[in-house]
Amino acid sequence: MNLIIKMAWRNLWRNRRRSLITMSSVLFAVLLAIFFYSMEKGSYERMIDNMVRYSTGYIQIQDVLFEDEPSMDHSMLVDEHINGILEELDDRIDFSVPRINHFVLVASDRITRSAMLMGIDSAAEARLNDVSDRITAGSFIEDNDKDIVVAQGLAEVLKVVTGDTLVLISQGYQGVSAAGLYRIKGIVDLHIPEMNNSTIYMALPEAQWFYNAQDRLTSLVIMPENPQHTRQLAGDISERIDTEWYRILTYEEMLEDLLALMQFDIAGTMVLLAILYIVIAFGLFGTMLTMLLERKKEFAMLMALGMKRAQLAIICFIEAIIISLTGAFAGILVAIPFVVYFYHHPVQLSGDFADAMTGYGFEPILPLSPDPVVFVSQAMVVLIISIIIGMYPVYSVFRLDMVKARQK
Fold first, then answer.
1. Within this chain, do residues 10 and 115 fall inside the same structural domain, yes or no?
2. pLDDT, position 53
3. Do 135 and 45 have their domain in common?
4. 369: closest CA among 53, 29, 35?
5. How distant, in Å, are the alpha carbons of 133, 137, 155, 200 from that of 190?
6. Which long-range contacts (CB under 8 A, 24 or more apart) does 89-92 make?
């Protein structure tokens, strides 16, 4: 076998220029495929990560009616039943984040807007995201604060700064009117443009008082020790909880529309990558076909000297594998430093394209994903292509007519 591999390797370099051109075409195809796939995967991972950390979390416990009709009347009471389940699964739960999320009308001197009021536990929220580190003015709220923190986009719309007072009006638990005057303690710049234009943070005890919902939450966010076990953990919580009163949702269910849109977009990218690899496959096939036509007489002579057709077919097959995988691995090695660099330093977009992404609720950057799947998947695609292409010279060798080949 070593002799066969050595012969295949030497045969490739009998025409260095052709072999290098073919390997280079595979290299650039793999490089482009990795770059585009990594960019798309990175953008979606960043988007999902932002939504999970700033909005939904990986798992939520809600009142059974809250998802269909979000109101304070469908908030849930966190009692011994819920706390007992959390204690039972404590070894698989990293931490939990209590929240009150409800719409509110917010008004400055002359401007009124609708917003999302988030009552939060500042310590738990700090473990979930870095929102307190994104303060651009003033400071973040603490658990006993009576003040609020306003997202920067909303503050610009309302034309307010720290120290100003806002009027908040909403409907509380069991139809109670909720209204109050609140001083702005800080302004925060959020990652997600849609949230940046509509979010107000308030300490959880104050939010419960504001909505007259003592000891009640609209959701309890559960963060698993291992995010990959989200579905399993959600299923175990569902088995233990009273499903007549509570509902368990994973981020995949809460972000279903967004994930479906992502899958549709990924399908479009896969079509473009498929076209790219089809072009490369024909280039590789052309190289193998040329090599076969040039070496038919050589093949006939080798078989006449005693080499078996199977051995000759294996040599040709190995040549196809080597020439494609060498180009693929070279493309991966070239791509790794680019992907790692742009993962840590994502491209900041500007102009109309950035405005368009912001309008759709996306952060205007192009991060890349260093997920090993990005690299391995491209190597596997090239391997499959090379195996398919490599079957043609195997077929040709077994169909070769030695007499006709020696006469050429």
1. no
2. 77
3. no
4. 35
5. 10, 13, 12, 11
6. 89/233, 89/236, 89/237, 89/240, 91/225, 92/224, 92/225, 92/226, 92/229, 92/233, 92/236
Looking at every residue in the chain, the average pLDDT score rounds to: 84
Q: Report whether 184 contacts 147 (CB < 8 A).
A: yes
With cut-offs at 50, 70 and 90, classify the pLDDT of residue 401. low
Residues 402, 287 share a domain: yes
* Residue 229 forms part of a structural domain: yes
Give Cα separations from 256 to 27, 50, 249 (angstroms): 37, 15, 11
The verdict on residue 343 lying in a domain is yes
Together in a domain, 6 and 131: no
What is the average pLDDT across 44-51? 78
* Interacting residues of 39 by C-beta distance below 8 A, sequence separation 6+: 342, 366, 367, 368, 369
Show which of 195, 211, 242 is a domain's final residue: 242
| Tokens found for residue 154 | 């909303």
The number of folded domains in the chain is: 2
Q: Rounded CA gap, 130 and 134, in Å?
A: 7
Contact status, residue 335 vs residue 382, Cβ threshold 8 Å: no
DSSP state of 140: -
CA distance 328 to 97: 45
Looking at the structure, tell me whether residues 70 and 134 fall in a common domain: yes
Query: Are 78 and 7 part of one and the same domain?
Result: no
For the whole model, what pTM was predicted?
Answer: 0.67
pLDDT of 3 reads 73
CA distance linking residue 132 with residue 273, whole number of Å: 41
In the chain, the largest separation of any two C-alpha atoms, in whole Å, equals 99
Tens of pLDDT, residues 272-328: 888 888 887 887 888 778 777 777 777 777 777 777 878 878 888 888 888 888 888
* Per-residue confidence band for 207, with pLDDT thresholds at 50, 70 and 90: very high
Structural domain boundaries enclosing 159: 65-242
Distance (Å, rounded) from C-alpha 85 to C-alpha 390? 57
pLDDT, one tens digit per residue, over 82-98 is 888 888 888 888 888 99
pLDDT at residue 31 is higher than 90: no
> Is 375 part of any domain?
yes
Q: What tokens were used for 381?
A: 């695609």
Query: In degrees, to the nearest 5, what angle opens at C-alpha 274 toward C-alphas 269 and 275?
Result: 100
Quick one: 36 and 100 in the same domain? no
Do 219 and 72 belong together in one domain? Answer: yes
Last residue of a domain, one of 188, 215, 242: 242
Does some domain include residue 109? yes
**Alpha-helix residue ranges (DSSP H) falling in 52-98:** 80-88
